[in-house]
Design brief:
- It is built from 5 helices and 37 strands.
- The protein is mostly beta strands and about 650 residues long.
- The chain starts with 15 loop residues before the first helix and ends with a strand.
- It has 5 domains: about 30 residues; about 90 residues, Sandwich (Immunoglobulin-like), CATH 2.60.40; about 180 residues, no CATH class; about 30 residues, no CATH class; about 150 residues, Jelly Rolls (Sandwich).
- Strands 8-9-10-11-12-13-14-15-16-17-18 form an 11-stranded antiparallel sheet.
- A hairpin with an 8-residue loop joins β24 and β25.
């Protein structure tokens, strides 16, 4: 006879359906061989383990699955979670999940299956949000599929990748004209040239100059006016300069006004400069206003600059307003201190363009106004040096977060499309979907078939297993100390340590306590007492213990001693309430020292709570007999 290959144990990470099928095969084989009979081919066919090309005997085809109800699609960051109502129809096997980029079922492809009430779909990687449409249908154990849940697909969208979107927006912002204007350094305001009119007005028609000097100090006023005209162009210009100078200190005001027109263009410009210089330090204010038309292009701008220069350091602040062609408007306010530029700007390109507000600063904050009833804490702070946004409070309708560090989360519903990890999860009810597995390391496991294991998920080693019908325990069993009646209520009172107990069940240590027997209304408890240890006991010596019964019960009692015998015979008598119920005798004909264990058994029925039962172990020796270990009484009490 050929050697049969053993059925391997299903790995812990195998799908629940695989584990269920393998366990079912093992259960069937165990049932068929339970009475020692041989397993026939017909047995295996009828059990569904073996097929012969036809329908197995005594079976019928499963019904065509019904349409699935309750499909809900929730978009996650990179995954989309689908949930639906539990399927209770006989013969159900699994659910197919179909996906398409369009709301057209003919373009959908099957992306996976699920035997539970949920499925997590991870669509192709996309840095930006993509909407998919989903359909589901049930399949029975015969491989027959039911109808799709609906004609139209249920949409679900992945989230934008914040890192990608931020990078894309940053590129758009830094390439904008607004950013360029905000980032451009503020140039130095040149010193006022009192001879400017002589150098630029070659055709001055009027030139006024007044000057007073005393001891090298000068006070001067100069006005120059120019006007030109041709058959195609006209120009008029006026420059006015006021100056006061004492030594190296100078104060000056200069206004340059220009108007110019041609058959295709027109320009009006005025530049006002106010300047003071002392000991090489300068303070200046300049305003430049320009209105320009060139063909169908129009531009209006105003630039105001305040600037100080002291000991090689320069600090400037500049406001610029620009309007172009009736389609674009821009406003900037920036500061430039020794080359470090900070400011903000607003640009609007109209309905067909994206408006932009940009702040260029290390830190940006919104704070309550002085004198208001609001707290002094700034509710919103942006720290560009740390790539950080701080908010005292926020109400957000929809948020996409790549990585969140949150101390407390208070919410109504949490949906995890891929996984949820936590060292401790506290709550009232843990509800798993149909046929969903719960695997907590190697210490706790449950699947949708009703199988529960604790200790070892594969059932090997010490574990407890419940499959809905049978409870099996491998390893040590411990019951917590308990009593159906407080011993303090017993008349006369037992000794304080009356419950001290050690015994064994299947090799494991069991503490004193109750095991409730479901459906019987009875209780089972184990009690006992460890007595003398390492004491030599003479012939006829006894050791006693009073057991206090918890109520009307049936007692099963064991007395056990470890003995040593040197010559002759030795043993123990066991007495309950003064009556000998059992005797253990050992023969020692060799005359040499031997060691043995004497065990006696007895029983007792009690009728009242707190009834005292006297237990006695009495030494019987023919030669030299002594105890060299513990004397132990173990009481098994079944409460009636």
């Amino acid at each position: 006879m050929a050697t049969l290959q053993q059925i391997p144990t299903a790995p812990n990470d195998a799908p629940p359906q695989t584990r269920q099928t393998l366990q079912a095969v093992i259960n069937v084989l165990n049932q068929l061989t339970a009475n020692g009979g041989a397993v026939t081919q017909a047995d295996l066919v009828n059990a569904g383990v073996l097929t012969t090309g036809g329908t197995k005997a005594g079976t019928k085809k499963a019904a065509v699955p019904l349409g699935i109800k309750g499909l809900v699609v929730r978009g996650g960051f990179g995954a989309i979670l689908l949930t639906w109502d539990a399927i209770t129809q006989d013969g159900f096997s699994y659910v197919e999940v179909w996906r398409s980029l369009t709301n057209d079922i003919s373009t959908a492809v099957m992306v996976g299956t699920s035997s539970s009430t949920m499925y997590s779909d991870v669509p192709p990687d996309s840095k930006t949000s993509v909407t998919y449409y989903y359909w589901i249908r049930a399949v029975n154990v015969d491989g027959v599929a039911g109808p799709y849940n609906a004609v139209n697909g249920t949409p679900g969208s992945t989230a934008n990748d914040p890192a990608y979107v931020l990078g894309m927006l940053t590129g758009q912002i830094t390439s904008s004209q607004l950013h360029a204007d905000l980032s451009a350094p503020i140039g130095l305001i040149p010193a006022i040239d009192v001879n400017l009119a002589d150098s630029i007005l070659s055709n001055a028609v009027t030139h006024y100059q007044g000057q007073t000097a005393a001891n090298g100090n000068i006070a001067a006023i100069q006005t120059a006016v120019e006007a030109q005209a041709t058959d195609k162009a006209a120009l008029s210009r006026q420059i006015t300069t006021l100056q006061a100078t004492v030594g190296t200190n100078t104060a000056a005001i200069q206004t340059i006004q220009t108007t110019q027109a041609s058959d295709t263009a027109a320009l009006s410009q005025q530049i006002n400069t106010v300047q003071a210089t002392a000991n090489s330090n300068t303070a200046s204010i300049q305003t430049e206003q320009t209105a320009r038309i060139n063909g169908d292009q129009a531009n209006a701008s105003q630039i105001t600059t305040l600037q100080t220069a002291v000991n090689g350091n320069t600090a400037s602040i500049q406001q610029q307003l620009t309007s172009i062609n009736g389609l674009q408007a821009e406003y900037t306010l920036k500061t430039d201190v020794n080359g470090k530029i900070a400011g903000f700007g607003l640009a609007n390109g109209g309905p067909n363009a994206t408006s932009l507000f940009e702040v260029v600063a290390d830190r940006f904050a919104i704070a309550p106004p002085v004198g208001s009833s609001a707290t002094a804490l700034a509710p919103f702070v942006v720290d560009a040096t740390k790539n950080m946004v701080l908010m005292d409070g926020a109400s957000i309708i929809d948020a996409t977060i790549t990585n969140a560090h949150i101390k407390f989360v208070n919410g109504d519903t949490i949906n995890a499309a891929i996984s949820l990890t936590a060292p401790v999860i506290s709550g009232g009810t843990l509800k798993l979907g149909q046929a969903t597995s719960l695997d907590v390391g190697k210490g706790f496991y449950a699947d949708g078939t009703g199988v529960f294991r604790a200790g070892n998920a594969l059932g090997a080693g010490d574990s407890i297993r419940w499959d809905g019908s049978n409870l099996s325990i491998t390893g040590k069993v411990t019951a917590a100390a308990s009593s159906s009646m407080p011993y303090s209520a017993v008349t006369g009172g037992p000794p304080a340590n009356a419950d001290s107990t050690i015994t064994t069940i299947n090799g494991g240590v069991v503490s004193t306590g109750f095991i409730n027997l479901t459906g019987t209304g009875q209780k089972f408890q184990v009690r006992g007492k460890q007595l003398v240890s390492g004491v030599t006991i003479a012939t006829g010596a006894t050791r006693t213990y009073t057991y206090w019964a918890s109520g009307p019960s049936q007692l099963i009692i064991t007395a056990k001693v470890n003995i040593g015998i040197t010559g002759g015979n030795g043993g123990m008598q066991f007495l309950i309430d003064g009556v000998v119920v059992d005797t253990a005798i050992f023969q020692n004909a060799t005359g040499t020292s031997i060691a043995a264990t004497a065990t006696c058994f007895g029983g007792k029925t009690t009728t009242t709570n707190g009834q005292a039962v006297a237990l006695e172990a009495r030494a019987i020796v023919g030669g030299v007999y002594y105890y060299y270990s513990d004397v132990a009484f173990t009481v098994t009490e079944i409460l009636l």
